[in-house]
Write a structure and sequence with these properties.
alpha/beta, TIM Barrel, 8-stranded parallel beta barrel, about 500 residues
């Protein structure tokens, strides 16, 4: 059998004509009468642009591959006797007393009310995404390349000098901040070279920055076509981006005048950061007032996972997010989303082993977040447990954004009197239908009735996730989520057993 998808994808509205598909992903019977419905047909027309999803815009995309191992290969264990974390009596040993709050940080402590993190985005309904994170008391990350979202962005000598929209991004979170969580600005190589960290700290009081080494939906940075052709290519190049082919050459100027220019692609640089650079960079930014530093890492080879943790230890990084295969992105190569990196569950085991090794060497480890295709409380509990005490939080990106979009859509319909049929049984108003709005009203007062329903949707989803975690923790008689460990997991397959026994990577 093949685990790879057929040459059909929701990324680009393609499909195989035949029901019988060979190992290549092609129809077993390919005919000249076909209109090119599969990915090959699309490539014949759109060429190199079909490396990326053609359905972009107001969408999220994620891996379509059915990986041979994931968190479903484990069941959750349970116990009927004793308690851990509370006194063994009927009043204390309840699901409501399972502690979910976590704390981390080298020099500046960060408290999160729930063991979740909302990873980097800056598209779709980002305002409600950040606001909902603040309401729930967890961290949220502003995605890489965010300056490109500001139409009034200004550069001087390749450095950002005006980026007023960044204030809106911070305010989306800070408006609802209640002492838990943090709004974090992600920076890739390009962002860093353009002086985004310095600008953010000086002009907007930025307290936390995440340096992006990679994500498992895209191990390399995307190459975006310059839709405005030659003139746009020159502008992109002037902003500091790599543009290929080089539009500044006399040859390209001549081709432009002749109306024969090729496609131009703007490309973000790959990270080449090392320990020396990052230690110095963190020192520089902390001297300017930065309080916390984060890393974002993908499911690269174990050697690379170890290297990034060593750099984090030396630089005094507060948290590293590890992103495994199966997760999504706003814009990544189609096949890269499916066909590279360790699946999240495997990557996590590798990370936990490396952390143990480095702690034995006496290195102080950062907090760890695991993300990549996790959306439900059972998956989250398994991921926390599999970390054997090393996992502080679980990243919930696409799922949280789905909640932001659904909450906004449903809220807008209710406000116009068009209550969706499935929700009419609960009432006719936002206050009646959004059940967890009462919890927000308790925290913020009656002003919560006017909160954007997209943000309420994120809060409600995270509330559901938290309540589900409490059930699983209590099932194992563990009344603090930090007590969860691999003994809480039952392997259902040989691969799952090998992972638990430390044998999966011995192939």
């Amino acid at each position: 059998m093949s685990y790879s998808p057929k040459l059909t994808s929701n990324f680009n509205d393609t499909k195989n004509r035949s029901n019988i598909v060979s190992c290549s992903g092609m129809c077993s019977f390919c005919t000249e009468d076909c209109l090119g419905t599969c990915e090959l047909g699309l490539a014949a027309v759109r060429g190199s642009q079909t490396v990326y999803p053609t359905n972009t815009g107001a969408n999220q995309v994620a891996s379509e591959k059915d990986y041979p191992i994931d968190y479903s290969h484990f069941n959750i264990n349970g116990h009927c006797f004793g308690t851990h974390g509370v006194r063994p009596n009927y009043e204390d040993a309840t699901i409501y007393n399972v502690k979910l709050e976590r704390r981390y940080g080298r020099d500046n402590e960060v408290k999160i009310a729930l063991p979740f993190m909302l990873p980097a985005v800056i598209k779709l309904n980002w305002k409600d995404y950040f606001a909902g994170a603040a309401m729930a008391g967890v961290c949220a990350v502003i995605g890489e390349g965010c300056p490109s979202k500001d139409p009034n962005l200004e550069y001087t000598d390749g450095k950002i000098t005006k980026f007023e929209m960044l204030g809106e991004m911070f305010d989306a979170f800070n408006k609802y901040y209640r002492g838990y969580g943090q709004i974090i600005l992600q920076c890739n190589v390009e962002d860093d070279m353009q002086g985004l960290p310095e600008y953010a700290i000086k002009n907007h009081g930025c307290e936390a920055i995440e340096f992006k080494f990679g994500q498992s939906a895209k191990g390399v940075q995307p190459a975006r076509i310059c839709k405005g052709g030659y003139e746009e290519a020159l502008k992109k190049q002037a902003s500091g981006l790599i543009v290929r082919p080089d539009p500044s050459t006399p040859e390209m100027k001549k081709k432009f005048e002749e109306g024969c220019c090729p496609n131009f692609y703007a490309y973000d640089r790959l990270p080449l950061w090392d320990t020396k650079f990052m230690v110095n960079r963190v020192k520089e930014l902390k001297a300017m007032g930065l309080k916390n530093v984060y890393f974002k890492m993908a499911g690269y080879a174990p050697k690379d996972l170890e290297t990034v943790l060593r750099i984090a230890a030396m630089a005094g990084v507060d948290m590293v997010t590890f992103d495994g295969a199966g997760g999504g992105s706003g814009y990544s190569p189609n096949k890269m989303m499916n066909e590279w990196a360790y699946p999240t569950v495997c990557m996590e085991v590798a990370v936990a082993d490396i952390v143990n090794k480095l702690e034995d060497e006496g290195l102080e480890m950062p907090a760890i977040t695991i993300t990549g295709g996790i959306a439900t409380e059972d998956q989250a509990y398994k991921a926390i447990a599999l970390g054997d005490g090393h996992v502080t939080a679980i990243g919930l990106c696409r799922a949280s954004m789905a909640a932001a979009m659904s909450g906004k859509k449903i809220g807008d319909m209710i406000k116009t009197g068009d209550v969706p049929a499935r929700y009419k049984q609960y009432g006719n108003t936002v206050q009646e239908i959004f059940a967890d709005l009462a919890d927000l009203r308790y925290i913020y007062g009656k002003e919560a009735d006017n909160f954007p329903t997209g943000a309420v949707g994120v809060f409600s989803y995270l509330n559901k996730m938290a309540f589900g975690l409490q059930h699983f923790a209590a099932l194992n008689r563990k009344f603090d989520i930090e007590l969860a460990d691999s003994s809480d997991l039952i392997p259902l397959t040989r691969d799952a057993r090998d992972l638990l026994n430390g044998e999966w990577f011995d192939f």
